[in-house]
Amino acid sequence: MTDILSPLPGTFYHKPAPDAAPFKSAGDAVAVGDTIGLIEVMKTFIEVQAEEAGTFAAYTAGDAAPVTAGETLATLA
Known about the structure:
This protein is an all-beta fold. It has one domain (about 1-75): CATH 2.40.50.100. The protein has strands at about 1-5, 10-15, 30, 35-40, 45-50, 55-60, 65, 70-75. The protein is globular, with a radius of gyration of 11 Å. The model has no long low-confidence stretch (mean pLDDT about 95).
């Protein structure tokens, strides 16, 4: 398994908008550079992108949850 880590502290979101579907669901293919979530820092949204390819396993950080730099956000199988 490969972990996708938070590049900075902030609030992590699984989806691009409250009424939208999550960026990834379990079993989805993930390519290098795919966006898997957003981190909000001071009203600025930064995309979290996969640095490795694989199959999306799960989010480990909750939606709209506070996260710290280096925290695991999601895993790839």
